[in-house]
Every structure is written in structure tokens, then in C-alpha cells.
Amino acid sequence: MIRRVPAKHRNAPVNRERDTEALIRLVLLLVVGLGLTCGFVYAGRQHFAALKYGYETENLRRELDQLSEQQRRLILQREEAASPGKLEQAAKRLGMQALQAAQVDPLRQPAHNEKDNDPIQAKENPTKLRAKPNTKTITKVPEPVLAKPSRKKRI
Q1: Which residues contact 138 (CB under 8 A, 6 or more apart)?
Q2: Is residue 68 left, alpha or beta, with left meaning phi > 0 and alpha meaning psi from -120 to 50?
Q3: Domain assignments of the chain as residue spans, ordered by start
Q4: Which long-range contacts (CB under 8 A, 24 or more apart) does 146-154 make?
């Protein structure tokens, strides 16, 4: 094989122009590609979040159905326990007896101490109101101060 250029011969440096249009096209292609990639990643995230919320909603619906069924059963049990027949059986087990007609006196009124329940007397003498132990009793209630109307003339 014949060499046409000597091995130690250096080539002259070639300066070429930068192709700015090609650089702009590459940067634009990079930006559009990144935008598309970010869009796909965002859409994937939204999709998986929607799936997750769908599963959670389904589990919560199932739990709501179970709790509604349990509430219905408990209400039914409460109604059964409050039925007159069950109450009568429970009263007999406790040793209670049914009320006899001779035990009822329609003319007899329950004993009341009218002085304690009279609201007019309670207003006059507030110290007689029944108070819980270790509580302060207010004997005089301050009256609200009403503002006097001003006599300024309107313009």
C-alpha cells in the first residue's frame, strides 16, 4: 500500500462557522422532549393517584355498608329490649310486681314545696335559690347602662 501523505505531515487547522440554526433546533428539540416527558410523568402520577383514591373509596364504601348494617342490628336489638314484653320479664326477674288498681289514687297530688318553685319569690330573694356546693351565689345583678342619645344637629 502506498502512502500519499507523509506520516509526519500536519494538516492545516480548519476554522468553520458555528451553525446557530442547528444549535437552536437542538435546544428546541431538547425543551420539547423534556416538556413531553414531564407531561407523561405528571399524567402517570395523576392516573396512579386516581387508582389509589378509587381503591380507598371502595374500601370506605364497604366499611360504611358494614357499619350501617351493624347500626341497623343494634337499633333492632334496642327496640327488642325496649319492647313491653321484654321489660315486663326483666321487671319480674328483679322482683317487681305489676301496679294494682287499688294502689292508684287519682286525687292525690305529688308533694311540692311551692316556696322553692315560685319564680316570683326567687326573683325577690335570690339567696333562696338552690345552689350547688362550693359555688358562688350572686345576690345583685348589675343593670345595664343605657347610652343617652346625642343632641347633635344633622347637617
Answers
A1: 126
A2: alpha
A3: 21-88
A4: none
Please provide the size of the chain in residues: 155
DSSP code for 96: -
Helix (H, G, I), strand (E, B) or coil at 152: coil
Task: Write the single-letter amino acid at 8.
Answer: K
Name the pLDDT band for 103 (thresholds 50, 70, 90): confident
pTM of the model: 0.43
d(CA 76, CA 73): 5
CA 97, CA 91: separation in Å to the nearest integer? Answer: 7
30-53 residue pLDDT tens = 999 999 999 999 999 999 999 999
88-116 burial, b at 16+ Cβ within 10 Å, e below that, comes to eeeeeeeeeeeeeeeeeeeeeeeeeeeee
**Cα(46)–Cα(38) distance, rounded to whole angstroms?**
12
- Between CA 125 and CA 127 the distance in angstroms is 6
Alpha helices (runs of H) in the chain, residue ranges in sequence order: 20-81, 84-93, 114-117, 119-124
pLDDT at 4: 72
Residue 126: burial class (beta carbons within 10 Å; 0-12, 13-18, 19+)? middle
